[in-house]
């Protein structure tokens, strides 16, 4: 006769192969704080200021990244294929910026904003509707978002330079500012009214005479 007893894995040195699920604990660092001491030669108040400003830039960059994916999925019309590809290219580049900004915040001893509800509460970019919009409206919405990010990137770059946080200044100028300026150019050129077949200005072509 077998005795009824619970089977459990043998325990050696207090380690057990059984995964421990549903674990919870208080946070180990509160949002909005920075580690006291780091080997960066940047004082705590400077790192606090930089991480706060970078989190605003991060929330806006995450919003623009997601706006690009929305536009990639929902675009339509004769330029569908071109815009579908362009929007996804810009999405990928914004996703890389998100990672670079978030990791800059962490390495400065701060905490990066991460989850969608927190991003939505923080971003300065106007909320887009769930439904589809016309292509010129998609482009305008994306350009408005770029303008917000470009403006705050310039202010942040100057502040970082003043506070001697050269790493933040370099990231914001070289990657965020220049990347957004370039993407804004690519979008803007799609909003120039340009005839596809007949030139509107200048002399008439002989074939049209
Ligand atoms: Fe896709």
What is the general shape? globular
The hetero molecules present are: fe (ii) ion
CATH homology superfamily name of one domain: Ferritin, core subunit, four-helix bundle
SS-based class: mainly alpha
CATH A-level architecture of one domain: Up-down Bundle
Number of helices: 5
Order of helices and strands: HHHHH
Explain what this protein looks like in three dimensions.
This protein is mainly alpha-helical. It has a domain at 51-190: Ferritin, core subunit, four-helix bundle (Ferritin, Up-down Bundle), CATH 1.20.1260.10. It contains five helices and no strands. It has helices spanning 44-74, 80-107, 116-122, 135-162, 166-188. Helix 1 (44-74) packs across helix 3 and helix 1 (44-74) runs antiparallel to helix 4. It starts with 43 loop residues before the first helix and ends in a 21-residue tail after the last helix. The model has no long low-confidence stretch (mean pLDDT 93). Bound molecules: fe (ii) ion. Fe (ii) ion binds next to loops.
């Amino acid at each position: 006769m077998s005795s009824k007893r619970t089977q459990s894995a043998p325990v050696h040195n207090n380690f057990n192969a059984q995964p421990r699920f549903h674990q919870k604990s208080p946070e180990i660092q509160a949002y909005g704080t920075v580690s006291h001491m780091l080997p960066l030669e940047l004082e705590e108040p400077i790192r606090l200021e930089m991480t706060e400003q970078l989190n605003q830039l991060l929330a806006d960059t995450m919003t623009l990244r997601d706006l690009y994916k929305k536009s990639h999925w929902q675009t339509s019309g004769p330029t569908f294929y071109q815009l579908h590809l362009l929007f996804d290219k810009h999405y990928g580049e914004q996703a890389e910026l998100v990672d670079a900004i978030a990791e800059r915040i962490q390495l400065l001893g701060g905490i990066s904003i991460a989850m969608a509800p927190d991003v939505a509460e923080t971003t300065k970019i106007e909320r887009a509707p769930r439904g589809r919009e016309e292509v010129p409206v998609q482009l305008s919405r994306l350009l408005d978002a770029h303008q917000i990010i470009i403006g705050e990137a310039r202010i942040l770059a100057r502040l970082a330079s003043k506070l001697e946080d050269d790493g933040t200044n370099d990231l914001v100028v070289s990657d965020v500012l220049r990347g957004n300026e370039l993407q804004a150019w690519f979008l803007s050129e799609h909003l120039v009214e340009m005839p596809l077949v007949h030139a509107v200005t200048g002399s008439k072509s002989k074939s049209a005479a």
